[in-house]
Amino acid sequence: xxxxxxxxxxxxxxxxxxxxxxxxxxxxxxxxxxxxxxxxxxxxxxxxxxxxxxxxxxxxxxxxxxxxxxxxxxxxxxxxxxxxxxxxxxxxxxxxxxxxxxxxxxxxxxxxxxxxxxxxxxxxxxxxxxxxxxxxxxxxxxxxxxxxxxxxxxxxxxxxxxxxxxxxxxxxxxx
Length: 175
Known about the structure:
Blueprint: H1 2-24, H2 34-39, E1 48-55, E2 63-67, E3 70-74, E4 78-85, E5 90-95, E6 104-109, E7 117-128, E8 134-143, H3 145-154, E9 156-162, E10 165-169
Parallel strand pairs: 1-7, 4-9
Antiparallel strand pairs: 1-4, 2-3, 2-5, 5-6, 7-8, 9-10
């Protein structure tokens, strides 16, 4: 009887570990295009860097993401990529609120040396102000190359930029 209980417990733990692994993995989405497939496998041109931003959460409204003013709307399971001259551009996310006063902005400087590929995502967390009031805060966060590439592979391209100009936009993803 003890062996049966022990086997059941081991199987339960293995099952929970498998579920936990699934919860943290990106899920592949549709709407892939030839441009999307190309953007997933870019290498920076000489003297340039690539900056990818991906957003994994769906929400009722789009947020705006920009790199030195080159802006695109984005929603869940999407990514954008900028090919830029090497430097330290500013990445900014604007998260709309119910009113203009509730709109949140997150900014960070991106260290983008020539030949580099950077991956960023938006993190959110609740700041408790009281037992009944919680404020959502947002932070742009870098992510490692292998994890970033995995997310980009699973998501769909919304916009691609080269030197500040949008060269591709998949508006159908936002409908």
